[in-house]
Design brief:
Length: about 150
């Protein structure tokens, strides 16, 4: 009877220790979360599908970049969890808008707010004239109207 009591106590202790090891990750207290919104400058309209990601740290170790980026939702909101403690550079970008970045100080187990306002960026393309002619011709030689 005495051996079974000792065995149960040892099994309970091992189970509790295992639970602690798996329930609380080693780096849980060494990261923070950044929440925020990406909007259009001027109008304040939320921008859906903007990329928000961590591009590097100004001090400290190298990053695992595979899990450090998110997209904004239909309300322009994002949540970037697991950001290592210390200074980090956060960037946002969206096609048709200028990208923007800022450096933030991340505090362990804290959530901070960070909002971006992106300005529209005009992209100029070269002019292309498409005609039904089988050979290349200059605009002056074309018998068609070009608008």
């Amino acid at each position: 009877m005495r051996n079974s009591t000792w065995f149960r106590a040892a099994l309970t202790a091992v189970g509790a220790l295992t639970l602690l090891v798996y329930a609380i990750p080693a780096n849980a207290q060494q990261t923070g979360t950044i929440n925020g919104t990406v909007t259009e400058a001027g109008s304040g309209r939320p921008l859906e599908g903007a990329q928000v990601f961590m591009v590097g740290r100004t001090a400290g170790a190298a990053l695992d970049r595979s899990s450090r980026g998110v997209l904004t939702d239909s309300e322009g909101q994002f949540s970037l969890p697991g950001v290592p403690v210390g200074q980090a550079q956060i960037r946002t970008r969206l096609v048709g808008y200028t990208s923007q970045s800022t450096t933030v100080q991340v505090i362990a187990a804290q959530t901070m707010d960070l909002n971006f306002e992106l300005r529209a960026s005009v992209i100029a393309l070269d002019e292309i004239v498409v005609t039904g002619a089988g050979a290349a011709q200059s605009k002056k030689q074309l018998g068609n109207t070009i608008a």
